[in-house]
Amino acid sequence: MTYTPDFGSVQPIDVLNLKSLEKRAEAVIGRGEFGYISEGSDDGYTKARNTTAFNDVQMLPRVLQNVENPDQSTKFLGSSLASPLMTAPIAGNTLAHSSGELGLARGAKEAGIMMAQSTFASKTIAETAQVSDGAPYMFQLYMPKDWGYCKYLLDEARNAHASAIILTADSTLGGYRELDVINHYHLKGKIANLAGYNTGESGAGAGSLFKESMQKLNLGLIDKLADYSGLPIFIKGIQTPADAAAAIDAGAAGIYVSNHGGRQLNGAPGSIETLPGIAKVVDHRVPIIFDGGVQRGTHVLKALALGADLVAVGRPFSYGLALGGWQGVKSVADHLKMEIYIAMQLTGCQTIADVKKMHVTYDFSR
Amino acid sequence: MTYTPDFGSVQPIDVLNLKSLEKRAEAVIGRGEFGYISEGSDDGYTKARNTTAFNDVQMLPRVLQNVENPDQSTKFLGSSLASPLMTAPIAGNTLAHSSGELGLARGAKEAGIMMAQSTFASKTIAETAQVSDGAPYMFQLYMPKDWGYCKYLLDEARNAHASAIILTADSTLGGYRELDVINHYHLKGKIANLAGYNTGESGAGAGSLFKESMQKLNLGLIDKLADYSGLPIFIKGIQTPADAAAAIDAGAAGIYVSNHGGRQLNGAPGSIETLPGIAKVVDHRVPIIFDGGVQRGTHVLKALALGADLVAVGRPFSYGLALGGWQGVKSVADHLKMEIYIAMQLTGCQTIADVKKMHVTYDFSR
Amino acid sequence: MTYTPDFGSVQPIDVLNLKSLEKRAEAVIGRGEFGYISEGSDDGYTKARNTTAFNDVQMLPRVLQNVENPDQSTKFLGSSLASPLMTAPIAGNTLAHSSGELGLARGAKEAGIMMAQSTFASKTIAETAQVSDGAPYMFQLYMPKDWGYCKYLLDEARNAHASAIILTADSTLGGYRELDVINHYHLKGKIANLAGYNTGESGAGAGSLFKESMQKLNLGLIDKLADYSGLPIFIKGIQTPADAAAAIDAGAAGIYVSNHGGRQLNGAPGSIETLPGIAKVVDHRVPIIFDGGVQRGTHVLKALALGADLVAVGRPFSYGLALGGWQGVKSVADHLKMEIYIAMQLTGCQTIADVKKMHVTYDFSR
Amino acid sequence: MTYTPDFGSVQPIDVLNLKSLEKRAEAVIGRGEFGYISEGSDDGYTKARNTTAFNDVQMLPRVLQNVENPDQSTKFLGSSLASPLMTAPIAGNTLAHSSGELGLARGAKEAGIMMAQSTFASKTIAETAQVSDGAPYMFQLYMPKDWGYCKYLLDEARNAHASAIILTADSTLGGYRELDVINHYHLKGKIANLAGYNTGESGAGAGSLFKESMQKLNLGLIDKLADYSGLPIFIKGIQTPADAAAAIDAGAAGIYVSNHGGRQLNGAPGSIETLPGIAKVVDHRVPIIFDGGVQRGTHVLKALALGADLVAVGRPFSYGLALGGWQGVKSVADHLKMEIYIAMQLTGCQTIADVKKMHVTYDFSR
């Protein structure tokens, strides 16, 4: 099935910094939609801590390291990336821009970074894959209760050349998000993949999302998903060394350290606080993806230095998408790459391998 | 003596979160009364720290734990509770709502949680017991100087099927509360139990409350109260491992960790800061009740993980009572249960026993 | 020489808390004078830290300790005090109220606490002594360059039945105080003692205070002052264990832990932060006076628990003096005694000896 | 080549404190220029932390140390200085005042402190040297790509009697400075030294500054620069013990601890946080210059006590220059000397050697 993707209205955007995009995006996104995208759960402690915790990580820069034109390209799961960045899997991107995942996919592709698509995307895997067209791509799975639907998703992901399946483990139900209550907001719009599976029937609305998802997640699913799909399985939502170890023992091909942008359990540490302990246990046996509060090139360097192999960014790409479609996404990625470039030069790192060896200090131990 | 309880005006209330109730309740309670209910002592450090200290406790959530529909029911002193929650014993609840303790008792009963009645309640033990009618119930004792009055209270509590007596040890006089000075506020209204003991005579006003209470509290009282009442004695106001150990050695059947909501001694740690050290000394020999600044389901989980068996909440239930009578109390409990439910699912806890084994980190050691 | 002391306009004052007096006093004291009294040096870090550091000291209250009507009376240098409090030696009290040190002396006497008079007082030692009249009294010495003048001061102090001489060691020149610069303020008014020594001639103004004082202070002075006066010598301004040890070895009869209310060196720790280390070195060989940021009864208890024998309060007494003359001073002392009384009862301390044994935790180690 | 230096409009200025100069200077400097001078990189964390970190260093003052008229004079590289201060090398000082480096040089000379001139100065080395005229002077080198130009700079520096060359190692490209983006500001004005090398042709604008500078800095340059110039080589921008050790091993004659005023890499520790570890490794083998956030005399003492031999101050001298030309520079230095004088007296330090032995505590370890 081929169709001509509609990227909607696009334009490159000026990016002063990632944080500044939020206010600008708020002006162009509906109030309920913006609340849903931006909020954390409960009183927002963990969401806020995700970013502030980076201030408690201190890079110790080296000088006279013979660095010129630092090279931030990297390899991840066999893909060559222009930068160790990924668009975090976010649901329902048409909330931000009519092009939804098509815009995200094209922006990521043009920027040379990894794109991850959510089960709850506004576009089907096939539609997105047509844009992505072989560029680095991963598929995020909210485990459905229906194994038939799950197999459909895995089949589609494999057809889309997904380099891995990301099984989200931290969202067996939704966090308590007060802005949605205040705004009387219920996630609208179809779940494209579910609609696709239902052979065109209108899929379930967002209100029933978790009814469609499975609660009783366990370690046994890893092998089941890997066996059916033949793809590497990453576990997303790991916040403890114990879970990282258990997941690898159970066959996980990668660890995704995340607290879901502070949208699920509140009262957990900032995501970066949990990374060093997890990286120690993982000990390079499998790759680590990290997300949580990243807003600066220096945040990316800190995460890499503390053990991440790939750093995902969520809301800022949604804001870029809202403001400029795929070109906005690319603008965000390009800005971040510029900040990474400067930070690598100024910390004395010629390559991403150098960044991973950089000495950082931190004030927490979890 | 049977009478038809008057529950006053009641309605279920929308609860965005427990903290948000304070402002709403302020609008319906008298200024002096609201000041008295809401305030801490001195400059309010300990009251504020009670809640902020929870941010220094970090839960480390587990994933893939096979959890579905987590079960927060628990047993406490032989009672089955729908959730490990208690309405903390608060004096004079008619300050908040005409139904006073009747509303609290019915709200707690309908929510399936423990109710604790204060010696300084606005309703007699017997009146409250008629509503409570066998539901989980404890009686809090401010030790009177008059042993005859004390015996009367213990008799009434036993008749009311109290599962235990909570002897408050941290209030041999009142903390210094500046809002009362500013508002020229003196606790008004009768002490129902004292009036009952006085065979209908108007009891002492709040101004003489501490004149009626005993100062010279000591460990020997525990046996005396237990012997007369035949009931387990909990000591409320424990903030040190040394006092917990001494109380158990002297016959206490339970420990109630509390700093009286920051209304008594100011300059003490946040209540949750003192819990781990006390739990270590108690070592499961007797049950532990905890209160202090609880406003979130995650706070409940943190307290349980640090050693509490039952978690009491004070002011928020008063505010719920003020806003909706017994239905407001139930609304508060239901909201908290909802938050607990989500937090259990997201931390990988199927049961309260799992919560108690959850790994948490904290930044204080007392 | 006898005269009738003029206490000026007096009235008891309502004291909500000590902190609240500052704003009220500002309204009745001249702008320059208020700036001079209230300010700290440089950017005020140490002055502010003096009070906030008390929040990092946590009392661990005991219960069931058989306490009733706690007794805060104490002995210091043979004097019986109603409370372990002292009016810190403050210069030029007529800046606050026409009665100056006469009001301070009478207020302290009526409250049963120690009074300390500054060398730079607005009233002579003899005038003050006539009011003090045998009540607990100490004399604070800014070491003059002129030994004759020094002998005169010591003679007068002995005649006034001073129980000790407090040699201030932290003020060989004045701290940098920006409010004085902003207000173009120069300490006005005569130095009464200097005028007295000059047989009635008008003494030097405040501008030349430090010209009259000696810079080259050293340990040898302790014996010299003790030999001439026959009085115990306390060293004021001790902030290190090393200086405490050296002073005792050189003959000091007492240690006065102080950073001069944050008016001298800025960038030093809060005064209470330095107390535990000093108390450890002093090891009860000599008594310890403490000042620095005390605004609460709980602050007094914390200082005693960390090693102080007597706790001095400065600015709040000046404000009380400004607002009510000697009766205002007494009102401040009475309020503080009330807060101490409550705090003793609630921490389970029957006596000051119990307070000194109370367990406190703190987050600093200097 | 002799000419009459034009010092422009000059006046001594009142300095309440160094921090207060910023607002006053903002009023007389162009918006873009002020942004460029004042800003830090990214979100300004490191710039702000440079100053706030001094609050985490606590001086423990000694008393009775026989101190009178403390002497802050010091020797550095054979030069006698009235105070251990230096004007940090700042680019393009005509942005602040028409006299540019001429004013800085004269102000420093009159104040008896070290002057450091930037490669990117608004005046040539020769012009500045004519004013400096043998007063303590260092030359800061941004390594040019062109070795001929580099030799020219070194020749000029030697002719100007520079006591050392400061090779800046932390700026192989510029930090990301958002105010310049917001203000659409590009550093204007000629690079005087480059113009001089180009025999009078108009030099490159600021936009191409880093095009003219070398990226691939390495340890081998130290010997090369030392061999050609015959001058001691300091490395500026050292933030780690490892780099300090490596630089000394490679022939560096001095270490300059700095994070470029927080204008380059953001997310690094406050500069003072890095000093103790570096000083330990340097172990007095070579002298240490320090800069970063110094605004108080006490900051200077803290830096000396933690291992610095010379303390540089940047922006405040630019603001003094803007407000009063060379006299403003001298006013700033004089104010700082006054604060240092008071702080030395009050910490019991007679000499700079005493300051270096002072006991300080700090809450960080990098």
Provide structural commentary.
- Chains A, B, C, D: Pfam families: FMN_dh.
- Chains A, B, C, D: It catalyses: (S)-lactate + O2 = pyruvate + H2O2.
- Chains A, B, C, D: InterPro entries: Aldolase_TIM (IPR013785), Alpha-hydoxy_acid_DH_FMN (IPR012133), FMN-dep_DH (IPR000262), FMN_HAD (IPR037396), FMN_hydac_DH_AS (IPR008259).
- In chain A, helix 13 links the parallel strand 10 and strand 11 (310-313).
- Chain A has a single domain (21-362), classed as TIM Barrel, CATH 3.20.20.
- In chain A, helix 4 runs parallel beside helix 5 (125-132), helix 4 runs parallel beside helix 14 and helix 11 crosses helix 12 (271-282).
- Helix content of chain A is 41%, strand content 13%.
- The first copy, chain A, has an eight-stranded parallel barrel, surrounded by eight helices. A two-stranded antiparallel ribbon of chain A has the order 1-12. A two-stranded antiparallel sheet of chain A has the order 2-3.
- Chain A has helices spanning 21-26, 31-38, 45-52, 100-111, 125-132, 147-159, 178-182, 192-197, 209-212, 220-229, 241-249, 271-282, 297-305, 315-347, 352-357; strands at 57-59, 74-76, 79-81, 85-87, 114-117, 137-141, 165-168, 233-238, 254-257, 288-291, 310-313, 360-362.
- The longest helix of chain A is centred in the last third of the chain and has 33 residues, at 315-347.
- The first copy, chain A, has 15 helices and twelve strands.
- Chain A has 366 residues and is of the alpha/beta class.
- Chains A and B meet through helix 7, strand 8 and helix 11 of A and strand 1, helix 13 and helix 14 of B.
